[in-house]
Amino acid sequence: MSTTTQGPAAEAGPTLRSGSLGTADIAFFVVSAAAPLTVMAGVAPIAISLGGIGAPVGYLLAGITLAVFAVGFTAMSRHVRSGGAFYAYITRGLGRPAGIAAALLAMLGYNGMEIGVYGLLGTATQDTAHALFGADIPWLPVSLAGLLLIWYAGYRSIDFGAKLLGVLLVAETGILVLLAGGVLIKGGSGEGLSLDGFAPGHVLVPGTAAVLAFAFAAFTGFESTVIYRREARNPDRTVPRATYIAVAFLGLFYAFVVWTVIQAFGDDAVVKAAGSDPAGLFFSAITTYVGGWAADLMHVLIVTSVLASLLAFHNAINRYALGLSEEGVLPKALGRVHGKHRSPYLAGAAQTVLGAVVVVAFAAAGADPYAQLLLWVNTPGMIGLLALQLIAAIAVPFYFRRISHGEGVLRTVVAPGVATVLLSAALVLVATHIDVFTGASPFVNTILVGVAPAVFVLGLALAMRLRRSRPEVYEGFAAEPPG
After folding, report:
1. DSSP assignment of 100-129, as one string?
2. Contacts 24+ apart (CB under 8 A), 274-281
3. pLDDT above 50 (res 2)
4. Which 8-state DSSP code applies to residue 332?
5. Which controlled-vocabulary keywords does the entry list (predicted)?
6. pTM score, whole prediction
7. N or C: which end of the chain has fewer CB within 10 A?
8. What pLDDT is stored for residue 123 in this prediction?
9. DSSP code, position 407
10. Shortest CA distance to 310 belongs to which of 183, 121, 180, 455?
11. Are 385 and 30 in contact (CB under 8 A)?
């Protein structure tokens, strides 16, 4: 068991439980963060209404792009043993100022992706209560109860969280497999199963750019495999395997499920159905092909899907905060690890308090939990994480130029170069189609897009300040742990 911590603020004491996570455990964390059922039932209908029957290809293209990114990313993971994930990788490749800026951007990204989802938890639970019982419940108490539940699950040991996420993930993917099976067994809408959506004529349409933007957003969090390096069994193998499994599963599964839903309605009718009632598309399909009981179950599992995503992001945030505390950038107290559960429990408590403050503030302002709390907080987080993937891809070849290694040129130069081009295009697509994500005014959208670059610039300024006022912290930032 490792008892090594890093950075100038590290002290002797309990550490994260090394060797507790296998490949499947880490894959559960990152796939759960993506919330496959919520993404499919809540977002895929919009992608179909915009991109038509070629929408499944958008998810495949996004998966291929991120798989290319993973080639260089995982190659670097075998050489960088720091628990800092994105910021450690970027520091090694592009220097400490970029790494410190990346650390702030990561905290924005993961917190934005998690805290906004408490609004979705409230609205999803409202919808479920109304659909099953005809009851109207307020969203704020549900969101606050969710905060407490996620805090407790994060407070417990990491293997407890992995087991819980495993159960929830099997349940939410299982209901989608059940829907797909019903459609395939009954042969679709009567037109027969068709692969026309994969033809270039249906893919190369104006709406495909928007579909790609949605598709990249659907993979958010897959790269967090490296955050769990310190708790993984044989991390040099486990982390790359979990990364490839996560991105391959998400890409193929998303495309397959979207294709089967198109078959459920037929090529000619699905776009109209998705446009007129996007929220009901999946429920209508599963009622027709499986039964009303399955639609009721899907309502419940969407709530558990949201909870799984919240827990996955909460655990990732806590480990980032732990790493930055050990670096001396965040308060030392956040680096404390629970003696029994071996969890970063104070970081988890601080993150829960932050989430509660944001949720209550939006509620006090009379904001809509979905259109404002979810979308306005999630969007900067999504952009921040996509920007981090791009910066990490740029960092890979610079890092390998500085060290002796046995990696091939495909992993260290070609794949990162291709990923840089593709991720740049993805970031542009998301930024230029931000109105599709938020439905907000141009003024609000400009602010939402500008948050991530502003935080990165703020991080650069922080790096300069640390170099002047706390040189020992600056020089030790993202240093390789001994041993």
Report:
1. HHHHHHHHHHHHHHHHTHHHHHHHHHHHHH
2. 274/45, 274/46, 274/48, 274/49, 275/49, 278/45, 278/46, 278/49, 279/42, 279/45, 279/127, 281/41, 281/44, 281/45, 281/48
3. no
4. G
5. Membrane, Transmembrane, Transmembrane helix
6. 0.91
7. C
8. 96
9. -
10. 121
11. no
Query: Side-chain half-sphere of 417: how many Cα atoms within 13 Å?
Result: 8
Kindly list the domain boundaries of the chain, sorted by start residue.
Answer: 23-467
Residue 219: C-alpha distances to residues 3, 345, 386, 475 (Å): 33, 27, 10, 34
Residue 360 burial (C-beta neighbours within 10 Å; 0-12, 13-18, 19+):
middle
Tokens for 197? 């959506």
CB contact at 8 A, 300 and 309: no
Count how many Cα atoms sit within 13 Å of the Cα of residue 41 in the half-sphere of its side chain: 30
Average pLDDT score over the chain: 91
CA 55 – CA 263 distance, rounded (Å): 12
Q: 């697509």: which residue's tokens?
A: 429
Tens of pLDDT, residues 295-325: 999 999 999 999 999 999 999 999 999 989 9
DSSP code per residue over 24-84: HHHHHHHHHHH-HHHHHHHTHHHHHHHHGGGHHHHHHHHHHHHHHHHHHHHHHHTT---TT
Alpha carbon distance 389, 420 (integer Å): 9
CA distance 187 to 163: 36
pLDDT digits (tens, 9 = 90+) for 457-470: 999 999 999 999 99
Least confident span in 332-336, 441-445, 454-458: 332-336
Whether 318 contacts 107, CB under 8 Å: no
pLDDT at 287 over 80: yes
- Cβ-Cβ contacts under 8 Å for 381 (sequence gap 6 or more): 108, 109, 110, 111, 112, 113, 114, 116, 220
What six digits make up the tokens of 107? 């905290």
Any idea which residue has 């499947």 for tokens? 24
- The position carrying tokens 């930032």 is 477
The 10 Å Cβ neighbour count of residue 374 is 23
Contact 131, 296 (CB under 8 A): yes
Instruction: Give the closest residue to 378 by CA, choosing from 26, 42, 53.
Output: 42
Q: Please tell me the CATH code under which domain 23-467 is placed.
A: 1.20.1740.10
Instruction: Catalogue the E-assigned strands of 100-206.
Output: none
Per-residue pLDDT reduced to its tens digit, 173-185: 999 999 999 999 9
CA distance 477 to 245: 31
How far apart are alpha carbons 124 and 37 in whole angstroms? 12
Helix (H, G, I), strand (E, B) or coil at 21: strand
103-138: per-residue pLDDT in tens? 999 999 999 999 999 999 999 999 999 999 999 999
